[in-house]
Specification:
11 helices, homodimer, five-stranded mixed barrel
Chain lengths: 360, 360
Amino acid sequence: MENQHRFCVIMCGGIGSRFWPYSRADRPKQFIDFLGTGRSLLQMSYDRILPLVPKENIIIVTNEAYAPLVREQLPEIADESILLEPARRNTAPCIAWAAYHISARDPQASMIVTPSDHLITNEREFEQSIRRGFEFVETHDALLTLGITPTRPETGYGYIQVGDEVETDINRVKTFTEKPDKELAKVFLESGEFFWNSGIFLWSAKTICNALHEHAPEIAAKFDEGIGVFGTDRETAFIETNFPACLSISIDFAVMEKAHNVCVETVRFGWNDLGTWSALYDMSPKNRDANVTQNCSVLSYNSRGNIFAVRGDKLVVVEGLEDYIVADSGDVLLICPKAEEQRIKQMVNDAKMSFGEKYL
Amino acid sequence: MENQHRFCVIMCGGIGSRFWPYSRADRPKQFIDFLGTGRSLLQMSYDRILPLVPKENIIIVTNEAYAPLVREQLPEIADESILLEPARRNTAPCIAWAAYHISARDPQASMIVTPSDHLITNEREFEQSIRRGFEFVETHDALLTLGITPTRPETGYGYIQVGDEVETDINRVKTFTEKPDKELAKVFLESGEFFWNSGIFLWSAKTICNALHEHAPEIAAKFDEGIGVFGTDRETAFIETNFPACLSISIDFAVMEKAHNVCVETVRFGWNDLGTWSALYDMSPKNRDANVTQNCSVLSYNSRGNIFAVRGDKLVVVEGLEDYIVADSGDVLLICPKAEEQRIKQMVNDAKMSFGEKYL
């Protein structure tokens, strides 16, 4: 029987600009059928969580611009479970609001907080890990983060170093580490002490609210003013006024890296943050020329190591291209070496300078 | 006052496969607004000829598949002036039919025969050259071809070597020469004796019919069977039966390279056969990064020497690409180095093998 105190918060307010033009301001990455499975990344996140918490306890937090997309893609979610941010304020205010909202509905709640735009494989392992995590945070006053067992010396992720074991597969956190260079990443991998920081958290509503009071008191104070309005028809008006006044800060920086009751559950399911075209390329199945194809047909000649992400039923014919991104969203075509993908942000800015909002 | 005996034959039955996918089987190059002027190459050919011959004397010869396109683009042309080939048989049968058709309408006719998919600049010079050519073929029993004054050692064109002068700017033809290599092309250019073979011809109907009898007797015999039907409502049925039985051969090979009464008018208007992407690139205005843009907006970074031919109001963003063709027709995207464009034919074949007619 399902535990009625378990909640899930799916965060889906990001704009995914690193995947422009495939990801667009009006339909970011999490709303796209990114892997050609017939379900968007958001829908896949929802499907994954459905066996774990009661459906009515799934909360979506997003920017108010994306309300129509959320309603279209997840018609099962009631309007009162869609929290619409009037401004982008990173993850700490987002999570704080969700925690206060859930506390008002159920003071005994425990919750998982998850991004909506990551890829997770081996869902059976995922389910077991999440159940284990819920059980832990329901019996310990701890902030639990999931650490993914690394499979390669990845330089694009943050790492968590484990400290003393608390229970099997659950340890105290010793350090959070930024993206390492290649050499250091190899050392991390070989040590067995370092795990990828997944950005997936579990805790009780009470524990996270206490942590916000202790480590992010300005944010907690804002939401404390709203006690009594969460879950009522006054919540929206309160948020419209108070949410934009919150500091824009990540939950890692605001709470996780400061708190002393942080634990990590080391997990073994497959995970990729789909943070860059190269990451997507690396995790995708490749054809015999090491090209990756998304949603299109490709005829390639003397071309290796490319990723083709083209919307619509389109044929791409390519000769003499190596290690490029070719992304076509219908009205924008991007051709860029994978090694230069950090320049895409600048390109988006330039497109804005030259053409206004048209191609964003 | 216009000379009522002057006719024009515009040939527009080609499929333009070297410009695939921008040129497609259902809308080849000549029907496309190739230069972004608002008029297709066929329409530009028509506009150019309009001051030179009576409108009702302009004959279009095309494949029957393109009848709707011709009617759409040239609504001024009466149906009886659109000759629809039931099969592709190269230029000799095409020109023979037009010559017999015109002879039936006016035994004293003179005519210019012109492709529909070339670019001509300096139209005032063009008009003067064509008037001069008409006057010549109306007073001489000669087949006249236009030789373009070369401006560079082009290896992609055929050349005509001039012989003895007949009149100012009109000489006997000494040789027709195939595409030369670079060294030879330089010699040709410096000699002053060699001109580009434009594929534009002038002659009287009587002279070309005589030449067909002498040099292509099988073709002439076919059309001789139809004397009496040309210009009547029996012409279509006659052509349906007899045209496909003609040898497929070019007028150059069937007549021009054999006949002894061939002259060349050396002309000075600007001309490009738009035969290849590289030719189109070379003749097009370039931006400061030496890129050529057709019908689209481009943001380019570290990219030089490319040609972007993209239909629709599309933004192309490109990084680190040099000397490529990027052509997008909506449902097909081609990315290919200019130096490899001779491979496009193979790509079209491969697309047909894999996907049938869909992307042709």
